[in-house]
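FAQ

Q: What does a record look like?
A: Structure on top, sequence underneath. For example:
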């Protein structure tokens, strides 16, 4: 060996073992049959896998396809969950032989917190290290346990489709599907496929670049979720960028571990800069096609790039290819090409619109880094001129591809709704009174049924028939009526949208929009305060709304402003609460919002991810995409339906609640339930 590791692999191996190996282990899973059918001594072992993005596991096809109906069981960190195979290639082996790529993607069927590995973004230069580590699970003396080992790369098979591993450490049965990690670079480069035939012959692994063989969508791409490859790698890069930027939680990240490795010291991008850039690129729609991405690289490089063994599909792939091509170049030249690539990505033709914020942030990152690195002023001026010229000449999304932009907003015209007044009994804390009404498009309220002193355990069963009748009256084909739930201030967090009414039906919030109204909202202090509240409601209906997270600043819990300070917020402000579902949350936050005169607000009842960035980002995108308050009920409904369908990109919204309380349509007789003896 030569270069910085001339003294052997001991230094990077020691660093890897101490700082990065724990991160790999925490992201590695064992795969077995779905929960519920295995014997008392624990689930049998089919193989291993690892999290590549939130709620996505990469493994071998021959491991994942052992399940019936495409479902598998996944165990990690003492937790067992179900997963569904979303893609496998091939879907079955011939005569027990599974040809390459022998990869599968498994989607979790419920959101759970977990770690993720760092996938290499390199295209050509994946196999640049002599020493790698493998991780997985094996069975020994009747028990399933974690196993890992270190070995060398002995060569390649099938033109780079598979990697031959040395025999330094034994690859035991069960490690198939586990991650193969480049020790010197601190990144996952492959998936362990299995042992070779001889006792001392080592094993085989599949390069992770073959993940790009995921099917390309046949039709127009109107959103990130239409392309499985893009949705997974974007989620991967956002995950690591969020954790790198998070200043509140002190856990070590992959970027921290990579920062102490030697391989990046002579490169233009430090691990931190690379993580930030990939996170910014992940906020953009993908390239229109692989051809358009290669055209961008050709313009930046001044020559056509080679892209073996698998062509790049996304912005991260292009960056990796560009990064590899400058392994021997001067740092400044490499940085200039990377910054131009970032500007080209920020101004590229889109399959669907990008947010102005995402494009602006990427441009500002490139501009500021060029200044901080003291690149020549002529280059910085050229960078800005290229950006302006490309923006002027860029076609509208879908203009040439025939694709259609997705309209996320609904018709704001008044529609029928169902109103459920739900109030604790004044004389029995363990019982409720309720009234079900239909709200006509004109705003008139037609009471349908009511009951008093219903035991709390019986409320849902008693509501099944009245709600079914109300929904039948108000639903339109393809347009389910909104359920408005009127609750007292101290019960606004009641998760009615999760109720199954009837008991064997799906949650209400996945069937239709469900919003919360406040049945004991205090009257305004005077006419001026009443006018302010009405004006705020009107402004939010006109839009565009301005979402503001009030109880979390830079991922740190913050106390809510008092009522007077809340009233001074701008008329387009949409309050967002991030911490209500945590111990650090303000228990009186919702009451303060009501006292502050707000009729619309978003919050989450539970924090599925201790890092808040995904909730902040998802809320901002949802609010800005829909612009007006009257579109939020349908938007939240879509999110709940997506969570119920197991869509990982929607898991950030787990437990989201919406206050949507029209002051121009006061609740009728909301106190009657308490006054009836």
């Amino acid at each position: 060996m030569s270069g910085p590791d001339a003294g052997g692999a001991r230094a990077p191996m020691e660093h890897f073992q101490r700082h990065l190996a724990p991160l790999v282990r925490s992201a590695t899973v064992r795969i077995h049959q779905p929960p519920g059918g295995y014997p008392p001594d624990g689930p049998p072992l089919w193989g291993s896998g690892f999290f590549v993005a939130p709620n996505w596991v990469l493994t071998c096809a021959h491991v994942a396809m052992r399940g019936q109906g495409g479902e598998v069981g996944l165990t990690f960190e003492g937790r067992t969950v179900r997963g569904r195979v979303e893609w496998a290639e091939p879907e079955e082996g011939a005569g027990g032989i599974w040809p390459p790529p022998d990869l599968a993607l498994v989607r979790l069927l419920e959101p759970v917190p977990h770690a993720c590995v760092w996938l290499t973004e390199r295209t050509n230069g994946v196999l640049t290290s002599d020493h790698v580590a493998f991780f997985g699970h094996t069975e020994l003396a009747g028990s399933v346990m974690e196993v890992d080992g270190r070995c060398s790369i002995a060569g390649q098979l099938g033109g780079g489709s598979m990697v031959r591993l040395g025999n330094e450490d034994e690859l035991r049965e069960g490690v198939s599907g586990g991650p193969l990690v480049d020790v010197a670079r601190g990144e996952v480069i492959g998936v362990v496929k299995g042992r070779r035939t001889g006792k001392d012959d080592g094993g085989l692994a599949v390069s992770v670049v073959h993940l790009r063989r995921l099917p390309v969508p046949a039709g127009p791409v109107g959103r990130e979720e239409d392309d499985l490859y893009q949705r997974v790698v974007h989620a991967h890069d956002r995950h690591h960028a969020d954790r790198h930027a998070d200043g509140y939680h002190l856990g070590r990240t992959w970027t921290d571990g990579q920062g102490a490795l030697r391989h990046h010291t002579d490169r233009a991008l430090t691990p931190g800069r690379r993580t930030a850039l990939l996170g910014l690129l992940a906020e953009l729609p993908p390239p229109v096609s692989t051809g358009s991405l290669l055209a961008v690289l050709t313009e930046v490089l001044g020559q056509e790039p080679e892209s073996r063994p698998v062509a790049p599909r996304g912005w991260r792939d292009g960056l990796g290819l560009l990064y590899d091509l400058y392994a021997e170049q001067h740092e400044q030249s490499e940085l200039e090409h990377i910054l131009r690539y970032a500007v080209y990505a920020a101004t590229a033709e889109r399959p669907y619109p990008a947010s102005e914020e995402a494009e602006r942030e990427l441009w500002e990152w490139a501009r500021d880094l060029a200044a901080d690195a003291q690149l020549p002023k002529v280059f910085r001026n050229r960078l800005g001129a290229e950006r302006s010229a490309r923006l002027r000449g860029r076609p509208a999304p879908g203009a040439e591809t025939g694709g259609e932009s997705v309209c996320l907003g609904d018709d704001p015209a008044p529609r029928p709704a169902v109103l459920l007044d739900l109030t604790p009994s004044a004389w029995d804390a363990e019982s409720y009174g309720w009234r079900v009404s239909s709200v006509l498009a004109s705003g008139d309220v037609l009471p349908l049924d009511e009951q008093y002193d219903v035991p709390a355990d019986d409320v849902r069963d008693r509501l099944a028939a009245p709600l079914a009748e109300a929904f039948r009256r108000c639903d339109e084909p393809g347009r389910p009526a909104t359920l408005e739930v009127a609750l007292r201030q101290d019960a606004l967090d009641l998760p009615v949208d999760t109720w199954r009414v009837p008991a064997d039906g799906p949650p209400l919030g996945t069937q239709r929009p469900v919003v919360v109204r406040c049945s004991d909202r205090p009257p305004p202090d005077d006419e001026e305060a009443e006018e302010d509240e009405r004006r705020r409601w009107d402004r939010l209906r006109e839009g565009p709304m301005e979402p503001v997270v009030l109880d979390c600043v830079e991922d740190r819990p913050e106390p809510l402003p008092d009522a007077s300070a809340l009233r001074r917020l701008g008329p387009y402000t949409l309050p967002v609460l991030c911490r209500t579902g945590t111990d650090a949350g303000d228990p009186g936050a919702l009451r303060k919002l009501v006292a502050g005169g707000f009729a619309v607000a978003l919050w989450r009842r539970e924090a599925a991810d201790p890092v808040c960035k995904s909730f902040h980002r998802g809320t901002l995108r949802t609010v800005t995409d829909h612009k007006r308050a009257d579109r939020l009920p349908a938007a939240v409904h879509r999110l709940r339906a997506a969570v119920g369908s197991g869509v990982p990109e929607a898991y950030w919204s787990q437990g989201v609640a919406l206050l949507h309380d029209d002051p121009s349509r006061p609740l009728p007789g909301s106190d009657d339930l308490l006054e009836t003896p």
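Q: Is there anything notable about this one?
A: Residues 1-10, 400-410, 670-677 have pLDDT under 50 and may be disordered.
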